[in-house]
Amino acid sequence: MSERFDPQQADIRWQRAWDERQCFRADDASDKPRSYVLEMFPYPSGRIHIGHVRNYTMGDVLARYKRMRGHKVLHPMGWDAFGMPAENAAMEKGVHPGGWTRENIANMKAQLQRLGFALDWSRELATCDPEYYGHEQALFLKLYEAGLVYRKESSVNWDPVDETVLANEQVIDGRGWRSGALVEKRKLSQWFLKITEFADELLEGLSGLENWPDKVRLMQENWIGKSQGLQFRFDLSNGEAVEVYTTRPDTIFGASFVAVAAEHPIAQGVAERSPEAQAFIETCRAGGTTAAELETAAKLGFDTGITARHPFTGADLPVYIANFVLMDYGTGAIMAVPGHDQRDFEFATKYALPIPRVVAANADEACKPFAGEAESGDGVIVNSDFLDGKSVDEAKAEVISRAEGGGWGQGRTVWRLRDWGVSRQRYWGTPIPFIHCADCGVVPVPEDRLPVVLPEDVDFQTPGNPLVRHPVWKHTDCPKCGGAAERETDTLDTFVDSSWYFLRFASQPADRPFDPDTIAKWLPVEQYIGGIEHAILHLLYARFWTRALARVGLIDVKEPFASLFTQGMVTHETYERRNPQNGQTIYFSPGEVDRSGEAASLKDDGQPVEIGRVVKMSKSKKNVVDPDEIVATYGADAIRWFMLSDSPPERDLPWSEAGIEGCGRFVQRLWRLFARYDASASGEDKALDRKRDQTVAAVAEDIEALSFNKAVARIYELASAIEKAEPSASRSAAIRAMLLLVAPMMPHLAEEGWAAMGGEGLVAEAAWPEVDPALLVDDEVTIAIQVKGKLRDTLTVAKGMSKDELEALALASDKVQRALDGAEVRKVIVVPDRLVNLVA
RNA sequence: GCGGACGUGGCGGAAUGGUAGACGCAGGGGACUUAAAAUCCCUUGAGCCUUGCUCGUGCGGGUUCGAGUCCCGCCGUCCGCACCA
Predict the structure, then answer these.
(1) CB-neighbour burial class of residue A329 (10 A; exposed 0-12, middle 13-18, buried 19+)
(2) Cα A721 vs. chain centroid, distance in angstroms?
(3) Which among A116, A123, A419, A457 has the fewest CB atoms less than 10 Å away?
(4) Which nucleotide lies at the shortest CA–C1' distance from A661?
């Protein structure tokens, strides 16, 4: 064996060997137990980000481990290839989105392959392939036939200068990110998927997802937002009526005004007669459209002069147009109860409206003033006529039943979840397969005319959607009447593409999206791994598509991901200086900075730079490192090892130069350790045998729990134990076991060592080491001896010693006697094999 | 604003309610070397009256023989919010 392990040679050699043997091809037909390991597929931005390396390393370790445990493994990779960055590149650099994307894919694929991931590349797909999106169009039409697709008016962010629809992230302080023009809301007829029809199912289904993080289930539950409440009618002073929805009918006597959204018909009606109201609505429209902006904006209102008659008291309540009322939720109008809702409280304070108390801790506190904020907690109803003294729940039921009895309202379940708008007024996406005919209306493209393929010859130098401007593409004939007609020019949200790719990975016939029998052989995904940022949207949409496809009979799976893991981000220090002229922060990349010991200085001028916070790697802060450079310096195994070390995988991982150097050193240390392997060594080292099998068992558990950082720590311990041991058959066995333990994590090193030790075939096809259960239990344990809960001594005793013996041994300890200092022992707590606590 | 998480040495972190700080990084000391790199060994929470003692898991309370872990109340940081992927 040579002195040093040379990753640059070894990595490539073994990657070739795996490729030649097709080691990682998933075999549909095998009757081994199955494992579908999937990481969220990347957007082909051009370069692999270190976060990808972390994500795919985790999946790779699991996939390789499962294969060692005798499973057939499906571990595929593909590209979430549609989306805005390609169009931005087209506008900025004059390149074609398709060409740009395919070039990026080729680059990133090479980068992934250089990292040695055990992927089945034969199943690679890109969502921008007509083959893929053609099947997607077919599925979309199936959902249309099932009544799950419809069109309705919906507003978008319109940039009047660029003549384009903007995504929320492209709107900055109410202005278009490129043009700087004030963004308008514009109503368009758009395509929607009826996810709300599955709201109950998606909510119920969460309880079965035991291997999902609780936090993700909770976030989805809140997102779906089931609420039981009362919808009822206020008669208005102008002869009209307004329907409001409230989740707190128990507080109805605390209502002091009524508020409607700016888009509400009542508000629109008032605006027709009042220029001031019109102006107010305009102000609301100018504000941001996102929920966060709406809800953090200062509460603003406009008194319409209309009043609403309270159904119980007959009081006249003022009706306001308010910027914090959402048109999309409930009825777009609310009864405002300032005492018990914080938003209403702020509004009432601002406009000097009454803030009555109708819930109190007890009846004696019926007149207690509010401490500067609303009280939304539980309590007893006060100041509410017939509701006085009732609990919140009793009062809710009572009010609903009276409203229903009186015919002016009824109990209603309302969901926060809204239908999914999938229309995008963009080129680089899946064309929505419909045709608009003047005579026949909106007509689906017949299946035999799919796919509807994007035109290649498009121009991004003029504003607007290239599909709309294209000279011929949209002109076609109506499938029904044969007359001249136009194609739909909207494309699908890219979340649609990622809502079924895991099915296509499992089965990819040419003539259909997938084959249900093959799907049944792989799905559900055993382990799905990706970023927490997808906790709600992507994961909810994918769950919805799976259920929708099951409903139309295409598959027999309801939940796509049996187990979900959300990994943390990779972070890095920032290096910065403040520009004294304008106070702006200038960032420097790690490559520009000399970072030794406590301080950091700029290589260029030798002057210090400030070490900023450790934050998510981003181009704007320049705190990024390039995986390629790391691989070129340290090899694939070192970067993989870094990704698994130290930080728990669900938490952020701070990148550091020192850390990767340490990983590089450990690769070499293991190599030297493998060099000590001696098949002919004899002699037994019982303690090492024990350590070996305990480590093998623990690492297996850790990998299955994705606790890679713990597995790494145990591997370090075993390495130290082997290094300290004298040559023996036990030591050689431990070295061999060590090699197999690290094989999923550092596969190139493992192959190289395996070959050097004279192992059969490839480690990639080897089995996980067996353990002797008898070796897993220690025969001695260390017992903590406490006096009054404080540690005073430890004793090493035979495992399983009786309570009485332990107590006697504890009392016999000098240290214990000194700590007791003659005090009488009143109580003794003995936990066998753990501790003795003497309470004086 | 609403929803979700997180908080332990200089740093990343470990710890079924039972010995806080495993393991790694960084630091200090030493060996080897003409020297360096590499490697190996020792050491490293703070304080003190140093055979040992006291304090110590964001802050303040509580439950318990015993709390990093459970409960209540704060503070701080981060993530998501429906057209970014």
Answers:
(1) middle
(2) 39
(3) A457
(4) B25
3-state secondary structure of A443: strand
CA angle, residues A653, A657, A662, in degrees to nearest 5:
90
Fold of A226-415: Isoleucyl-tRNA Synthetase; domain 2 (3.90.740)
pLDDT recorded at residue A289: 63
Q: What residue has its CA nearest to the C1' of B11?
A: A654
How much is the mean pLDDT over chain A? Answer: 89
- Lowest average pLDDT, out of A3-7, A9-13, A80-84, A313-317, goes to A3-7
- Please, where are the H alpha helices in A635-728? 636-644, 657-675, 686-704, 708-724
Length of chain A: 840
Residue A163 CB coordination number (10 Å)? 13
**Interatomic separation, CA of residue A7 and C1' of nucleotide B79, rounded (Å):** 37
Å from A248 (CA) to B74 (C1')? 28
Domain A571-641+648-662 has CATH 1.20.1600.10: no
Give, in Å, how far the C1' of B26 lies from the CA of A658. Answer: 8
* Closest residue by Cα to residue A337 from A260, A409, A251: A251
Q: How confident is the model at residue A840 (pLDDT cuts 50, 70, 90)?
A: confident
The two tokens of residue A127 are: 């969502």
pTM value is 0.90
Rounded (5°) CA angle A11-A762-A645:
55
Sequence-ordered list of residues with C-beta below 8 angstroms from that of A673, at least 6 positions apart, any chain: A719, A722, A723, A735, A738
What is the predicted ipTM? 0.91
A50-68 vs A627-634: helix crossing angle, rounded to 10 = 60
Same fold, A571-641+648-662 and A678-776: no
Q: Give the architecture-level CATH label for domain A780-839.
A: Roll (3.10)
Query: Nearest-CA residue to the C1' of B80?
Result: A533
Superfamily of chain region A678-776 = Isoleucyl-tRNA Synthetase; Domain 1 (1.10.730.10)
- Do A501 and A530 touch, CB atoms closer than 8 A? no
Nearest residue for B16, CA–C1':
A834
Distance CA A512, CA A4 (A): 52
Q: Phi-psi region for residue A319, left (φ > 0), alpha (ψ -120 to 50) or beta?
A: beta
Paired tokens of A691 = 């350590």
The nucleotides of chain B lying under 7 Å from a protein CB are: 1-6, 11-16, 18-20, 22-27, 38-41, 52-54, 65-67, 78-85
How far apart CA A263 and CA A450 sit, in angstroms, is: 39
Residue A831 CA, nucleotide B7 C1', distance (Å): 31
How is residue A217 written in tokens? 């289930």
Mean predicted confidence (pLDDT) in A720-747: 94
Can you say whether residue A800 is alpha, beta or left, with left for phi > 0 and alpha for psi between -120 and 50 degrees? Answer: left
Question: Per the annotation, does A619 bind a ligand?
Answer: yes
Residue ranges per domain, chain A?
137-203+419-494, 226-415, 571-641+648-662, 678-776, 780-839
Please compute the mean of the pLDDT values over residues A619-625 and round it to a whole number. 78
For residues A724 and A810, is the Cβ–Cβ distance under 8 A? no
Architecture of the domain whose range is A137-203+419-494: 3-Layer(aba) Sandwich (3.40)
Question: Which amino acid is located at A118 in the chain?
Answer: A
Query: What is the Cα–Cα distance from A362 to A532, expressed in whole angstroms?
Result: 43
A563 to each of A38, A201, A208, A704, how far by Cα in Å? Answer: 10, 18, 11, 11
Map tokens 């509400």 to a residue: A264
pLDDT of the residue at A343: 82
Q: Burial of A445 by CB count in 10 Å (0-12 exposed, 13-18 middle, 19+ buried)? A: buried
Per-residue 3-state assignment (H helix, E strand, C coil) for A747-814: HHHHHHHHHHCCCCCCHHHCCCCCCCHHHHCCCEEEEEEEECCEEEEEEEEECCCCHHHHHHHHHCCH
